[in-house]
Amino acid sequence: MRGLMMDYPLTITHILDRARRLFRDKPVLTRTASGMHRYTYGDLYRRVCRLANALTALGVCDGERVGSFAWNTYRHLELYLGIPSSGRVLHTLNIRLFPEQIGFIVNHAEDALIFVDDSLVPALEALAPQLKCVRGYVVMGDGPLPKTSLAPLYRYEDLLAAASEDYDLPRLDENNAAGMCYTSGTTGNPKGVAYSHRALTLQSLAQCSADAFGLCESDVVMSVVPMFQANAWGLPYTATLVGATQIYPGAQPTPQDICELVQEHKISVTAGVPTVLLGMLGALEQKSYDLSSLRCVPCGGSAVPESLLARFDQLGIRVVQAWGMTETSPLATLSKPRSSMVSWSAEQQRLVRAKQGMSMPFVEMRIVGDDGKELPQDGKSVGELQVRGPWIVAEYYNDPRSAAAFQDGWFKTGDIATIDPDGYLQITDRAKDVIKSGGEWISSVELENAIIGHPQVLEAAVIGLPHERWQERPLACVVPRPGQQVSRAEILKFLADKVAKWWLPEDVVFVESIPKTSVGKIAKRDLREQFKDYHWPSEKA
User: Fold this and answer.
1) Around 441, how many Cα atoms within 13 Å sit in the side-chain half-sphere?
2) Which entry of 347, 436, 440, 493 is annotated as an active-site residue?
3) Fewer CB in 10 Å around end: N or C, the chain?
4) Which of 75, 90, 63, 80 is nearest to 120 (CA)?
5) What separation in angstroms does the CA of 279 have from each of 116, 423, 458, 481?
6) What is the rounded CA–CA span in Å between residue 55 and residue 65?
7) Helix axes of 74-85 and 12-22: crossing angle, nearest 10 degrees
8) Residue 260: which H helix or E strand, with range?
9) How far is residue 303's CA from residue 445's CA, in Å, rounded to a whole number?
10) Measured between alpha carbons, how far is 317 from 362 in angstroms, rounded to an integer?
11) CATH code for 12-253?
12) From CA 49, how far away is CA 188, in angstroms rounded?
């Protein structure tokens, strides 16, 4: 017997229309060079309709990809909602990728148009000769069109002004693509991920649950995660779905900008990678800000050190570790202590919160050994993490590498991890970054998190380098906090009671900065290249 349910598609169109019907007077604000731009969801909806009609006038067909090369602003939000709701596919271009990678992904996705912020026109102009598929460029900004060789060239506001507000939102297939993102391409060319309407809608619903972010209409949400990185972790869609007030930080926000926005607008939810949160803590050391309105700060992109959680706890701000990838739309797990842990000490609970956490509803995960067999969830067995679920990618877009990344309906993440008996995931490393010393595995991530706990350390990265006796040994690369000094001996002494003796770094080097990827993760490939000719102290002697 079949359930007699209506055939109602789960699409971005519904998220947009719900905001129009229920939250037309709620504000959306953006930090700009001239002050805060403010309008409402009702204004947003009317401009999105004009955008959809403008796309039709420019000859963009259903299913065609439309690129965005832009910061976090209200105009980018209009693209987020208008392009997929009209049946096209939004392809967010990561402005921090290497130029050759951007050229590759534009051509691979076959973007028909690219919408670009006026401040980013010079960067895109340098790439234009490579972009054979692009039929036009739309510049977003308040001023006149800049002088540029990009052609044909359109001004966003002119296109909207010339278009009608009358637009009937189409009924779309929920399995059609709504958006595209590409991986950051740490090895080989970036890989394309096409997100369905259904995947993005379900992800938004899951984020609203109390055991996730608990987003609701009364929240004030600021999307600090770049909108060109994994859909800003889905927050623009989720915030629109529930009708939350939205704040966008605009171009190149500093930690001080972020703190000022939180203080002025009483932001309750924001999100960022650990480097963003560390920047906020640094800003607080220079000036006092009232951040007490923050009730939930999802943090991910790389492992969140227990010491960072503790520093925000002291401020009365709850940081929630989340894990996901471009391929998981993006969130797959969240780490919150269970009710059975409420009597535990704050330190014990932080040890749980420092893990990547339990899977979100409908997401399954498992650990698989080298023999392809599933390993027990005992918190000790280490293997590759595999995931599946309704918003996990099924294959890469037009890419033969799919065959190696998917097996029996599971996505092979490339992360090395354990799962404990309570179902909490702990990622110990990327497969290519784990250190094998004397036949035993050392987690570079756990070492990094321990080192960052030192009060004189700002950042740390650990890489494995060849060793004549032990095959590989860990080298710790440490950035001291501004104005602070710390020695190799002090780092090793600090770690002595925190990790196994044979895990202790063979050496510690001090650097001015640690290279990052386009999504803010430590670029360990670059570090290994930087130290490829390094000699251990014993070898130097």
Assistant:
1) 17
2) 436
3) N
4) 75
5) 27, 32, 10, 12
6) 11
7) 120
8) helix 255-265
9) 7
10) 28
11) 3.40.50.12780
12) 39
Cα angle, residue 525 at apex, residues 520 and 529 outer, rounded to 5°: 130
Q: Are 83 and 62 in contact (CB under 8 A)?
A: no
Question: In one letter, which amino acid is 441?
Answer: W
For every residue of 277-345, DSSP letters joined together read HHHHHHHHHHS----TT--BEEE-SS---HHHHHHHHHTT--EEEEEE-GGGSSEEEEE---GGGTTS-
Domain boundary assignment for the chain = 12-253, 339-430, 437-540
CATH of domain 437-540: 3.30.300.30
E-state strands within 363-432: 364-368, 383-388, 406-407, 410-419, 425-430
328-362 residue pLDDT tens: 999 999 999 999 999 999 999 999 999 999 999 99
Asked about 436 being catalytic, the answer comes back as: yes
What pLDDT does residue 541 have? 47
Residue tagged active-site, from 110, 347, 440, 441: 441
Strand segments (E) across 5-48: 27-32, 35-40
11, 13, 73, 183: the active-site residue: 183
Q: Kindly name the residue from 64, 78, 306, 327 that is annotated as catalytic.
A: 327
Name the DSSP letter for residue 128.
G
233 is catalytic: no
Q: Amino acid letter at 325?
A: M
Q: Give the CB-side neighbour count of residue 424, counting CA atoms within 13 A.
A: 19
**Rounded Cα distance, 388 and 368, in Å:** 13
Give CA torsion, residues 255, 256, 261, 263, to 10 deg: 110
Using one digit for the tens of pLDDT, what is the confidence trace for 231-279?
999 999 999 999 999 999 999 999 999 999 999 999 999 999 888 998 9
The helix (run of H) or strand (run of E) holding residue 54 is: helix 41-57
Extract the runs of DSSP E, i.e. beta strands, from 107-244: 111-117, 136-140, 153-155, 177-182, 192-196, 220-222
* Within this chain, domains 12-253 and 339-430 share the same CATH topology: no
524 is catalytic: no
Q: Environment class of residue 534 by beta-carbon count within 10 Å: exposed (0-12), middle (13-18) or buried (19+)?
A: middle
Q: Band of the pLDDT at 446, cuts 50, 70, 90?
A: confident
Cβ-contact 233, 227 below 8 angstroms: no
Nearest to 249 by CA among 261, 240, 237: 261
Is a pLDDT exceeding 50 seen at residue 32?
yes
Domain 339-430 has CATH 2.30.38.10: yes
Q: How far apart are CA 441 and CA 62, in angstroms?
A: 50
**Interior/surface letters 92-113, b for 16+ CB within 10 angstroms, e for the rest:** bbbbbbeeebbbbbbebbebbb
Q: Six-digit token pair at 222?
A: 């600021």
User: Which residues are within 8 A (CB) of 363 and not within 5 positions of it... i.e. 6 or more apart?
Assistant: 328, 332, 333, 387, 388, 389, 391, 392
Which residue is it, tokens 């050391």?
Answer: 285
